[in-house]
Amino acid sequence: MVIFADHTIGYWLTEYLLQNQKNYFIADVYTNETANAWWDDLRLLQNYYPIKIKLFDPDTTYLELKKTNPDYLLLLSWKHLIKKNILENVKVCTVNLHYSLLPKHRGVYPVNWAIYSGDTETGITFHIVDEKVDNGPIVGQLTEKISVFDDAFSLIQKLDILALKLFKKNMG
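Structure (tokenized):
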């Protein structure tokens, strides 16, 4: 498998996979530059696990992925759209983590849109990626109430915990 991961949840889920490699092999992990981010840099995981975590570069990463030809591609809090020709190089499927109860709030900033729209609940969705944005078949969802005291940051923290819970349940 190949992992594209970012943010706190990307760190947590990648670490979980690295800790529990039994029936799968992680060929590559890609992340984004996080010099000014408030979350941990995924490259810190290289200090604890035998894997090289690479910075995503659209000019080279897709060529590398084409050569790897993985069974699975996991998009764990990933902001870049994956082109159809890349999806075609993944043997089984590409799975994405999205922070809404799809099909609601597809695309960018779903947590912000949930709050702005006055939603009383939101959640996390793991789904199979197809050529449309946040559109493929749903693998799993969990729901979280939105408190009147929630802002985007506090809600993301709650959703991170939900995503880890559902991921462990499905991968365990």
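The chain has a mean pLDDT of 93. Residues 2-171 form a domain with the Rossmann fold fold (CATH 3.40.50.170).
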